[in-house]
From TrEMBL, chain A:
Organism: Dicentrarchus labrax
Keywords: Nucleus
Subcellular locations according to the entry: Nucleus
Gene3D superfamilies given in the database record: Alba-like domain
Protein name as annotated: DNA/RNA-binding protein Alba-like domain-containing protein
Main location: nucleus
Pfam families: Alba
Claim: Nucleus is one of the keywords in the record: yes
UniProtKB/TrEMBL annotation, chain B:
Function: Component of ribonuclease P, a ribonucleoprotein complex that generates mature tRNA molecules by cleaving their 5'-ends. Also a component of the MRP ribonuclease complex, which cleaves pre-rRNA sequences.
Subunit and partners: Component of nuclear RNase P and RNase MRP complexes. RNase P consists of a catalytic RNA moiety and 10 different protein chains; POP1, POP4, POP5, POP7, RPP14, RPP21, RPP25, RPP30, RPP38 and RPP40. Within the RNase P complex, POP1, POP7 and RPP25 form the 'finger' subcomplex, POP5, RPP14, RPP40 and homodimeric RPP30 form the 'palm' subcomplex, and RPP21, POP4 and RPP38 form the 'wrist' subcomplex. All subunits of the RNase P complex interact with the catalytic RNA. Several subunits of RNase P are also part of the RNase MRP complex.
Name the record gives this protein: Ribonuclease P protein subunit p20
Region feature Disordered, mapped onto this chain: 1-28, 120-139
Length: 277, 151
């Protein structure tokens, strides 16, 4: 969660907060306990709201609650809803078409949610991609060739991380990345009353990453070839630039920062790093 | 390291390369009492049409900057970069640019892994701790927003 609700309120200057708030007495700086599971995340929500004020077309939410008579152009942030005594009942994703054209139907789709553990996701995906490679035949069970990672809202970063980890473990994978908006329907209900209910439609950014052992179309926007040589290039550049930045950076109390490449140390091993004197 | 989400690393400067001090957040670590300083990520080359997104600058300002580059600056394409928590914001900016252009713009997203280095320095100089570094990986996204070539 964000450490500062101050960040949140700072961006609220141009939001229609007055219209949104039915209970004026509530304070707004209290961090709320979000329910576990899938949340679009305050980050995405505020971006949704900011862009909607720039004048972008926004999916209008179906507000059926009697507490908010005026139709809102902006879906209220999840933070506010939680503070007003609303609890999220359910969150359903509206199905949007798969962005990859001509994708085989038997491809493994990994849906990354915000609460997913990377360890579990990678265990499953790696087993499917690497395992059963000895089995002959082109069936689905015989060592998958393609896998799609999808995630939306707060899970986008985790999705990218999963894809990067898989690329690192299973080398020479072709990647295709697609971005789109997803509409998420949330149902919030009042904890006390139990009568008032609100349905909120939010548009959140979502990402879909296709990793494939077979070569993909390089002309497709979002295509990324398997990194073999580019990794070396990045490393070499890293050496140069890090030595440069190490020189220019004021050293201060750090005695070892003049050493351009400090060896990586794990805390438990007891190996110490000493600059060459 | 005590905060699960720390957007401090997405402070790659947008205007000019900055080589100031490395700490964006000093977090005390116990029990050995280290001060954690995050080094800035490796300075990436910045062309005129590169935009690095961070969580500190206002969203609308970054969006306006991208729009100005595309329309006024005459660039046919711009590249929006985001690191860590700023990935979401970078995607939002790119999708926003596409929506405001009535679908003329196209997006091409690439992902990468960036290595970040943390310096751990002992809090108390008399303490037996020695300065160490720790590296970790973070995800980054690079979105190319471009006008497709007429074919």
């Amino acid at each position: 969660m964000f450490t500062g609700c101050g960040v949140v309120s700072g961006q609220n200057q141009y939001l229609t907060r007055a219209a949104v708030r039915p209970h004026p007495g509530l304070e707004v700086n209290r961090p709320i306990q979000m329910e576990n599971g899938v949340t679009p995340g305050t980050c995405s929500v505020y971006q949704d709201q900011t862009y909607s004020n720039v004048g972008q077309p926004v999916v209008v939410n179906n507000v059926s609650s009697p507490l908010k008579p005026t139709p809102l152009p902006v879906p209220p942030p999840a933070l506010k809803l939680g503070q007003e005594g609303f609890k999220k009942v359910c969150r359903t994703e509206e199905v949007s078409p798969c962005p990859f054209p001509g994708l085989a139907s038997g491809v493994l789709e990994m849906r990354v949610k915000e609460g997913s553990k990377i360890r579990n996701l990678m265990g499953f995906a790696m087993a499917r991609m690497q395992g059963e490679k000895g089995v002959s035949g082109g069936g689905v069970s015989g060592g998958l060739r393609q896998v799609v990672f999808t995630g939306s809202g707060r899970a986008v970063t985790k999705t990218i991380t999963c894809a990067e980890i898989m690329k690192r473990k299973v080398g020479s994978l072709h990647q295709l990345t697609k971005l789109q908006y997803k509409v998420v329907k949330e149902v919030w209900e009042n904890t006390e009353g139990g009568t008032s209910e609100m349905t909120v439609h939010r548009t959140v950014p979502s990402i879909s990453i296709l990793l494939s052992k077979d070569p993909l179309d390089p002309q497709e926007p979002g295509y990324q070839p398997p990194e073999i040589l580019s990794a070396l290039w990045e490393e070499r550049e890293g050496l140069e630039s890090s030595s440069q930045t190490a020189c220019k950076r004021p050293l201060g109390p750090l005695p070892y920062s003049s050493f351009p490449h400090c060896k990586r140390v794990c805390l438990g091993e007891g190996v110490s790093v000493h600059p060459p004197h | 390291m005590t905060e699960p989400r720390n957007p401090g690393m997405s402070s790659v400067p947008q205007t000019a390369p900055v080589h100031t001090d490395s700490s964006s957040a000093a977090v005390e670590m116990d029990p050995v009492e280290y001060t954690l300083r995050k080094r800035l990520p490796r300075k990436l080359p910045k062309r005129r049409n590169d935009v690095y997104v961070n969580m500190k600058t206002d969203f609308r300002a970054q969006l306006a900057r991208c729009q100005k580059l595309l329309e006024g600056g005459g660039h046919r394409e711009i590249c929006v970069h985001g690191l860590g928590l700023a990935i979401n914001r970078a995607i939002n900016i790119a999708l926003q640019l596409q929506a405001s252009s009535q679908g003329v713009l196209q997006l091409a997203a690439n992902t990468s892994t960036v290595e970040l280095v943390d310096d751990l320095e002992p809090e108390d100089p008399d303490e037996a701790g020695e300065p160490m570094t720790r590296t970790r990986n973070n995800s980054a996204i690079h979105i190319k927003v471009f006008y497709p070539d007429p074919q």
